[in-house]
């Protein structure tokens, strides 16, 4: 029965995803690689659970790409684009352009015709959004200069997928007349049979209709549906919208991805944007997962086995080309002091979009099977290598650069006697430093973000570029004679590292530290650093007190309540700390970090009632006593 | 018409029975400025310049508070410490408050009998209030007889209503300047001048 077959397929795909994606995550890989791996495992070269139909499933799952572009469109607020225009369109645009040109030229040396060479250039110019974003998030680099530049480039690449999808069939049409006919047969019905100017009118009309409907009509429809309060109808409506646009677009011979992307951009400032995002997102995730699994299943390992050195050589060549272009651009856009290397290493792999583009170009008959197969292998392997690139940067390149930059630091930091050293001068350190400066204390400020250093110098702050986690920088800043060391940096492990170094080597220097959360504070307590401030705890309480005011508390009552909460938290801190010390199972500790922190605080809180704290001003007991006295007196 | 500034200090206003009624009766009257110190300075960080400006803009100052340990709640003391600056309120050049009047409005748990040489508290209210009186003198201000709500823990609701009405009468009399100097000098409590 067809159904059973369908469910059996679903079972295999879902099982493969559920087993291999979490495994990949545990091993520190991004989910894309997990899906690919799952595909490889169930594919013809390992278990052989799926075979020919993987291709069909891939076509179906490509709808995930359409959904993804809709979501990318939704994310693109015009304001954000405008704010980052220089790095998105300048840096991103140049990266795509230059990399495409270089790769195309190299490809033509491999005897590809010019149209295929350009196709290969376009496909391989993109970098993996999934891998890079995950790396940035994990390493806390999203706000770092290199991280931001990488993000801008990725954003531009995401947008450029849309025109790429339009260009590829065009490139394919240069493949010679016989092929052309074959590939156009399916399209020569309906719209495509009309004269050119009518087609153009239809296309303009369709895009105009999407913009008009999205801007002026969609909100009434969504409001009407939202008012029913039936979530599944909203889901149905969202899917209907995307599928409708996709079908309409294919009917007039345009890419469905382009249509949904435009619809997404148009809806980006609508009030239903978040609702749409959360509704579509799981469908996108599953379909893309399915897509990557089917890509994995259709990777032709025979091609690898035939000539492993050629494939590996191509992967290395690709990474080197992309790396060099990125490095040059990074320099050109004033990334300095190792950030240009980080930027280049981050983006040197190929993109998951490449799978989409490869399968699309195969359909459009731009490439024959073998080229497409080799491309898929190169793309997948370059993605698999990208964690190695980051390690290479961290362990080899950046230490060399640091040694080289060291001389600069030595010249820049002028040691002072009895300095107060502030490490990290972002939002947190700035508040600390301004207070000290306002009280006429001299401070030595060290920050490891060159952008910070540049901006704050313009404001007249005297601060030095350097990484305090390196002992030389600390020594030069005068740690040996320091009165106070203020660790206001955001880097979790680095601030502990510095605290430990100072504790061991200069036990007399007082350390004041910013902690990310209670567990960070515990780590400091373990190093005997007692003056620790949790970075957002106090501001949270302040806002909480304001909330109490809005709920009808007198201001002083609200103020006392927040103070009480704070002092109570300080009291239980040592208690919690001892619990934490006993718990040796660090892994569970990490994963339960948040929920534990909240629930423990709240559980402890419930035993107290804040309102009973101010009983000194509560005259209830006196009233009772006095009432007793008078009645006695009356007797 | 004289201008009256009420400096109200109550750290647990939300629990108060009497003062809520008293305040409600007077805070919206013409010519009266109500300044709730615990509401305005929950963190005890008093805006000294602003408070001094308020003082100079008014003719009669009211210190309105419950009686804690025979004294004002901490924030009113903090207010006196900071706002009544040398060179502003007292001293050779400190004449900003000269000629103004001060009225204490106080709610206290003990009955009038308790506040006497034979009573549990051994001293009269006016004896306890000597620091306030002398502070006013030092600032060249005229200290008026206090308005006292005695027995705040046992007082009945209708009595509270009456106190509220009286408080309003007191402030109107002062605002419209209807009392003779001799009456004011003779009276032990302001309460006596209304009945």
Automatic annotation (TrEMBL), chain A:
One of its GO terms (molecular function) is potassium ion transmembrane transporter activity. It comes from the Bacteria. Keywords: Antiport, Cell membrane, Ion transport, Membrane, Potassium, Potassium transport, Transmembrane, Transmembrane helix, Transport. Residues 417-536 form the RCK N-terminal domain. The chain crosses the membrane at residues 6-25, 32-51, 57-76, 88-112, 118-137, 149-174, 194-218, 239-266, 286-304, 311-329, 341-360, 372-392. It is found in: Endomembrane system. This is Kef-type potassium/proton antiporter, CPA2 family. Belongs to the monovalent cation:proton antiporter 2 (CPA2) transporter (TC 2.A.37) family. One of its GO terms (cellular component) is plasma membrane. The keyword Transmembrane helix applies. SUPFAM superfamilies: NAD(P)-binding Rossmann-fold domains. One of its GO terms (biological process) is proton transmembrane transport. It is a multi-pass membrane protein.
From TrEMBL, chain B:
Keywords: Oxidoreductase. Pfam families: Flavodoxin_2 (PF02525). It comes from the Bacteria. InterPro entries: Flavodoxin_fold (IPR003680), Flavoprotein-like_sf (IPR029039), KefG/KefF (IPR046980). GO terms for molecular function: electron transfer activity; FMN binding; NAD(P)H dehydrogenase (quinone) activity. Residues 2-170 form the Flavodoxin-like fold domain. PANTHER family: GLUTATHIONE-REGULATED POTASSIUM-EFFLUX SYSTEM ANCILLARY PROTEIN KEFG. This is Kef-type potassium/proton antiporter accessory protein, CPA2 family.
């Amino acid at each position: 029965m067809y159904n059973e077959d369908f469910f059996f397929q679903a079972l295999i795909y879902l099982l493969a995803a559920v087993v291999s994606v979490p495994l990949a995550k545990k091993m520190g890989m991004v989910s894309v690689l997990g899906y690919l791996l799952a595909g490889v495992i169930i594919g013809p070269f390992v278990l052989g659970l799926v075979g020919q139909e993987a291709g069909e499933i891939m076509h179906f799952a490509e709808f995930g790409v359409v959904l993804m572009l809709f979501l990318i469109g939704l994310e693109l607020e015009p304001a954000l684009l405008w704010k980052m225009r220089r790095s998105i369109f300048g840096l991103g645009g140049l990266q795509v352009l230059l990399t495409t040109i270089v790769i195309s030229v190299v490809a033509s040396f491999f005897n590809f015709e010019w149209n295929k060479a350009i196709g290969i250039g376009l496909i391989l110019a993109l970098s993996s959004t999934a891998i890079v974003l995950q790396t940035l998030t994990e390493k806390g680099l999203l706000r770092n200069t290199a991280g931001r530049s990488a993000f801008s480039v990725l954003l531009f690449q995401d947008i450029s997928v849309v025109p790429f999808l339009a260009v590829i069939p065009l490139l394919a049409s240069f493949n010679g007349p016989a092929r052309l006919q074959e590939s156009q047969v399916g399209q020569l019905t309906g719209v495509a049979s009309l004269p050119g100017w009518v087609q153009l009118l239809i296309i303009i009309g369709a895009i105009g209709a999407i913009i008009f409907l999205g801007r002026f009509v969609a909100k009434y429809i969504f409001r009407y549906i939202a008012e029913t309060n039936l979530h599944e109808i909203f889901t149905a409506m969202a899917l209907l919208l995307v599928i409708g646009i996709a079908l309409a677009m294919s009917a007039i011979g345009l890419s469905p991805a382009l249509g949904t992307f435009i619809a997404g951009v148009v809806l980006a400032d609508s009030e239903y944007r978040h609702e749409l995002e959360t509704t579509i997102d799981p469908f996108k995730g599953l379909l893309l997962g399915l897509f990557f699994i089917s890509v994995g299943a259709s990777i032709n390992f025979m091609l690898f086995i035939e000539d492993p050195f050629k494939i590996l050589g191509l992967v290395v060549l690709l990474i080197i080309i992309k790396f060099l272009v990125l490095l040059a651009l990074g320099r050109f856009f004033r990334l300095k002091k190792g950030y240009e290397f980080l930027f280049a290493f981050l983006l040197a792999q190929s993109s998951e979009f490449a799978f989409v583009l490869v399968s699309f170009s195969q359909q459009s008959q731009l490439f024959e099977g073998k080229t497409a197969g080799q491309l898929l292998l190169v793309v997948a392997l370059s993605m698999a290598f990208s964690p190695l690139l980051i390690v290479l940067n961290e362990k080899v390149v950046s230490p060399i650069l640091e040694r080289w930059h060291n001389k600069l630091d030595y010249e820049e930091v002028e040691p002072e006697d009895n300095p107060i050293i502030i490490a990290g001068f972002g939002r947190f350190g700035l508040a600390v430093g301004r207070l000290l400066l306002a009280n006429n204390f001299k401070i030595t400020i060290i920050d490891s973000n060159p952008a910070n250093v540049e901006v704050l110098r313009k404001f007249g702050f005297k601060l030095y570029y350097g990484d305090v986690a390196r002992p030389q920088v600390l020594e030069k800043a005068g740690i040996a004679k320091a009165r106070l060391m203020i660790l206001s940096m955001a880097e979790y492990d680095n601030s502990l590292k510095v605290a430990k170094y100072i504790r061991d080597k200069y036990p007399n220097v007082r350390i004041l530290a910013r902690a990310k959360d209670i567990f960070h504070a515990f780590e400091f307590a373990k190093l005997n650093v007692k003056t620790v401030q949790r970075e957002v705890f106090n501001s949270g309480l302040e806002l909480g007190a304001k909330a109490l005011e809005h709920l009808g508390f007198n201001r002083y009552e609200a103020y006392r309540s927040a103070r009480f909460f704070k002092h109570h938290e300080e009291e239980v801190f040592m208690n919690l700390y001892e619990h934490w010390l006993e718990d040796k199972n660090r892994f569970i500790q990490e994963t339960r970090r948040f929920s534990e922190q909240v629930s423990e605080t709240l559980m402890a809180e419930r035993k107290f009632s804040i309102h009973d704290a101010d009983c000194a001003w509560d005259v209830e007991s006196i009233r009772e006593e006095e009432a007793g006295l008078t009645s006695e007196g009356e007797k | 018409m004289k201008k009256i500034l009420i400096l109200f200090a109550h750290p647990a206003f939300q629990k108060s029975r009497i003062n809520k009624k008293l305040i409600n009766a007077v805070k919206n009257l013409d010519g009266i400025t109500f300044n709730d110190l615990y509401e305005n300075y929950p963190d005890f960080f008093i805006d000294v310049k602003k408070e001094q400006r308020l003082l100079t803009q008014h003719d009669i100052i009211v210190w309105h508070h419950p009686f804690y340990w025979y004294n004002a709640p901490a924030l009113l003391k903090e207010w006196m410490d900071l706002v009544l600056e040398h060179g502003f309120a007292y001293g050779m050049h400190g004449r900003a408050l000269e000629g103004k009047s001060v009225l204490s409005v106080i709610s206290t748990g003990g009955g009038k009998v308790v506040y006497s040489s034979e009573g549990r508290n051994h001293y009269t209210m006016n004896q306890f209030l000597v620091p306030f009186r002398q502070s006013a003198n030092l600032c060249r201000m005229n200290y008026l007889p206090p308005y006292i709500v005695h027995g705040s823990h046992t007082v009945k609701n209708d009595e509270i209503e009456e106190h509220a009405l009286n408080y309003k009468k007191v402030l109107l009399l002062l605002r419209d300047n209807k009392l003779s100097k001799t009456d004011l000098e003779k009276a032990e409590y302001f309460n006596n001048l209304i009945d």
